[in-house]
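Input/output pair, single chain:
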Amino acid sequence: MRWASFALLLVALGFSACNTVPKLPPNPPLTVAGYKSAMEDRLGPIWYRAVRADHRVTVGTVKLIFDFPATGGRVQNIKVISNTGGSVDEMVARLAVDRLRVPALPAELLQALGKDHLACEESFTIFQNPDSSPPPKR
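Output:
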């Protein structure tokens, strides 16, 4: 049973990440904040689908650090730096970030960074579903 839900989660994440070579939006962001914002916009839907697909998640926040490589593609060096939720929350956050595909960093941004990657820190919070809470007592 446990493996079945895990397999379903992996399939759901696989479909959510099926896209062609990632490209930056028109008028690409030439700042670190602009690039990170564009990547957060890509990561959000992957994260929300993953959370909806696994009903074992708990209330809490998982904070990850990872790198966007200069050449684009898969995110690298994913590490958990804190977790106030459960182990499933951590797994879902890691899988969502692992499914993210990023476009190559713009040359201007790479020059400003002076590195071959862009470090990122992201928090993933799961809130209590208001529909699942018991009705208030009178």
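The longest helix spans residues 32-53. The CA atoms of residues 47 and 75 lie 14 Å apart.
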